[in-house]
Amino acid sequence: MNDGFLSQEEIDALLRGEPLTSSPAVELSDMENDALGEIGNISMGSAATTLSILLGRRVSITTPRVSLTTLKELQNLYPLPYLVIEVGYTHGISGTNLLAIREADALIIADLMMGGDGTNPPSELNNEMYLSAVGEAMNQMMGSVATSMSTMFKKKIDISPPKVNLVDFAADSSRMTDTVGAEDSIVKVAFRMEVEDLIDSEIMQILPIHVAQEMVENLLAPVQTPAPAPAQQKPTPAPQPTAPVASAVQPSANSGYTPQAAEAASRQPAPNVPVQPVQFAPLQETFVTGHDTNIGLLLDVPLQVTVELGRTKKLIRDILELSPGSVVELDKLAGEPVDILVNGKLIAKGEVVVIDENFGVRISEIISPLERAKNLQ
């Protein structure tokens, strides 16, 4: 509060029911910095793989740099239009996560998603089709990030559908998110992103402080292992009476014979004991006959049978242009046998027939067991 007037951030805080208190100074320890860098390195590496598959180009996202900042400082440092993708965590973590990418880079990604080569992208993201294309790419990337964190944290992490906004950081009135104030501390994890020779830029992951700290706690949480069961002491066997040692010579009073000496003599190995290799009887080949009752247990298990006429691949641009009356060309020739799949696995081929005004399939070929085994792998 300055000169008795409320700032816009303070008004927003009052509307959210938050007290007007000054934000305490926040610092990240070296361990927290390293943990956040490792989380970002692994999760964004998975996101790079996903983006590479979508664009059909080599994508590299490396070198995370973790720092503390505020949204206001971020806008002053990067006075450029950015595409901001906001996702909320619905399970495993509480809070939101922002991914910011420059508009110029987003335009190249959109052009590649629409089937272009990225060398002549549109000038602005004002086209709904281009905005949807790049939004879908970012959605897939954030899904990969959530999957990677699920593996790292050893628990399920779910996210809500992303919100895609084009924000001009140079405008004072621009707002990236309503979840944190302009003066609140946030964690910025910046990465270098390269898409072959088309993009060499920076992409930012923006986290509220409590979300970043929760991620660090999940990563550094010790693995709970069950305590070992106390070892049970084996009962001590009762001493067995020692059999008397038979001797053909009776000891005399001066012979030095004692029971201990007799026992030690009994433990010595007998000399000249013949040793022969063991011999086993030859094994006889036997045949085990299966019982029909075993397979009978599976006869009532339902299976899904699907007849596949053919397949094809289309670009997002082509899918969006489909309309009633459009013809989709498949990868099979006319009259070629159709594939018959059981639970998604190819087992036979056949031809389409008509039976009493209903379609059917006449099986013409059963896939060999060897080919079916290959399909199961």
Automatic annotation (TrEMBL):
It holds the Pfam family CheC. This is Flagellar motor switch protein FliN. It is found in: Cell membrane. Residues 298-367 form the Flagellar motor switch protein FliN-like C-terminal domain. It is a peripheral membrane protein. GO terms for cellular component: bacterial-type flagellum basal body; plasma membrane. It comes from bioreactor metagenome. Keywords: Cell membrane, Chemotaxis, Flagellar rotation, Membrane. Belongs to the FliN/MopA/SpaO family. GO terms for molecular function: cytoskeletal motor activity; hydrolase activity. Residues 31-67, 129-165 form the CheC-like protein domain. GO terms for biological process: bacterial-type flagellum-dependent cell motility; chemotaxis. Residues 226-271 are annotated as: Disordered. Its main location: membrane. Residues 226-235, 243-253 have a biased composition (Low complexity). InterPro entries: CheC, CheC-like_sf, FliN, FliN-like_C, FliN/MopA/SpaO, FliN_T3SS_HrcQb, SpoA-like_sf.
